[in-house]
Design a protein that fits this description.
The protein is of the alpha+beta class and 120 residues long. The protein has a single domain, classed as 3-Layer(aba) Sandwich (Rossmann fold), CATH 3.40.50.2300. The protein is 34% helix and 11% strand. Strands 1-2 form a two-stranded parallel ribbon. α2 packs across α4.
Length: 120
């Protein structure tokens, strides 16, 4: 979202159970759409005590394992399958990453565009 709406929003990413690395196929798919990811795998714990206007959980498991966000901010859950769990040959797995990336991009972008009065 920073690459698409960085002038209006500042996005942060973290997981409830981070793996310690960004999946290589996720990096590949981001590069395919012109995003050179420079981040790292982070835990939600790194953001405890911070205030956000909007907290969006994006994995199916996150709705059940994410702690209640006690800071200021609206919480929205958008369920997406975890592409790292995809099975099949290399191309099928890569296509799963592409599909999830596209869905996330469209749905989260629309969510942010529908909230023009909230800014970081």
């Amino acid at each position: 979202m920073n690459s698409r709406m960085g002038g209006e929003w500042e996005a942060f990413s973290a997981g409830s159970h981070p793996t310690g690395f960004v999946h290589p196929k996720a990096l590949q798919v981001l590069a395919e759409i012109g995003i050179q990811h420079q981040g790292r795998s982070k835990s939600m714990d790194e953001f405890q005590g911070q205030t956000f206007d909007l907290v969006v959980t994006v994995c199916d498991e996150a709705a059940e394992t994410c702690p209640v966000w006690d800071g200021k901010g609206e919480k929205v859950h958008m369920g997406f399958p975890d592409p790292a769990e995809a099975i099949g040959n290399e191309e099928e797995i890569l296509n799963t990453f592409r599909s999830v990336c596209g869905d996330m991009n469209r749905k989260v972008l629309k969510l942010l565009q529908d909230r023009p009065n909230i800014h970081p």
